[in-house]
Amino acid sequence: MDGLGGTRRARDQSDEELRMPISLSRHLSIACIGLALAAAATAQNTGPASDERAGEAQPVFTRARFVSAHEESGGKPYVRLTLLPRAKLPFTTQTFRLADRRLLADIQEGSPVEFVSRRIDGENTVVAIRAVAECKRLQKC
Fold first, then answer.
1. 89 DSSP assignment
2. Residue-range domain boundaries for the chain
3. How far from 5 is each of 10, 11, 14, 15, CA to CA, in Å?
4. Which pTM does this prediction carry?
5. Cα distances (Å, whole numbers) of residue 127 to 6, 40, 84, 105, 141
6. What is the C-alpha to C-alpha distance for residues 82 and 93, in angstroms, rounded to an integer?
7. Is 66 exposed, middle or buried (0-12, 13-18, 19+ CB in 10 A)?
8. Fewer CB within 10 Å: N-end or C-end of the chain?
9. What's the distance, Cα to Cα, between the start and end of the chain in Å?
10. Mind listing the pLDDT tens digit for each residue in 51-99?
């Protein structure tokens, strides 16, 4: 028993020598968290998009099929688009206000299109639209 108790006592003493005071370990962990946050912030700011367009997001084009265009009260132009299956609301025909009539100059009804919309004056407004090639089935567009 003496040998077993002596080993246990020696192990307890060596553990006590290796333990750090609580305040020191707390300071070290806070310093490590601060360094990790600083490294993460630096990594986010080094992308090529941040150099080219600081603070400006790239437009997201949504694929759709151009159904029709019409004018409502007050001469405001509107466009009806059927969203394609990859959209969040698949196979939905929605009406958007058109920012400028000239956007539809070369687009025929029934054509596949890509468009960008923004919320302007309380309405979903198409600010960019372009004709694109038809998507081939089971292939990436």
1. S
2. 2-52, 62-131
3. 9, 10, 14, 15
4. 0.56
5. 81, 35, 19, 14, 22
6. 4
7. buried
8. N
9. 77
10. 445 557 888 888 899 999 999 888 899 999 998 776 666 678 899 999 9
User: From 2.40.360, 2.40.50, 3.40.50, 2.60.40, which CATH number describes the 62-131 domain?
Assistant: 2.40.50
Please give the angle made by the CA atoms of 67, 70 and 75, to the nearest 5 degrees. Answer: 155
Residue 52 one-letter amino acid: E
Given a cut of 70, whether residue 14 has pLDDT beyond it is: no
Q: Tell me how crowded residue 42 is: count the other CB atoms within 10 A of its CB.
A: 9
* Token pair 């009406």: residue: 95
